[in-house]
Specification:
Number of helices: 1
Radius of gyration: 13 Å
Structural class: alpha+beta
Strand order of the largest sheet: 1-2
Strand content: 5-15%
Largest sheet: 2 strands, antiparallel
Distance between the termini: 25 Å
Number of strands: 2
Shape: globular
Amino acid sequence: YMACGSSGNQFKNAPVAGRMMAAMIDYVEGGGDQDAKPMKFKLKHLDHAIDTATFSRLREINQNSTFSVLG
């Protein structure tokens, strides 16, 4: 398992990235299929969940992207 690809200014997101990775590891090791049914990660302090399909290795490539950190 690996969380990578953030730029240096993203250190402030490390706590939530760590919690999300721990939840994803538990999900997959517990039998969840991250490719077929991506986990929804509930944010601790907000009434919101992150659809981890956004980060999937199988997601469609956005051909309109600049493919840079800026966007």
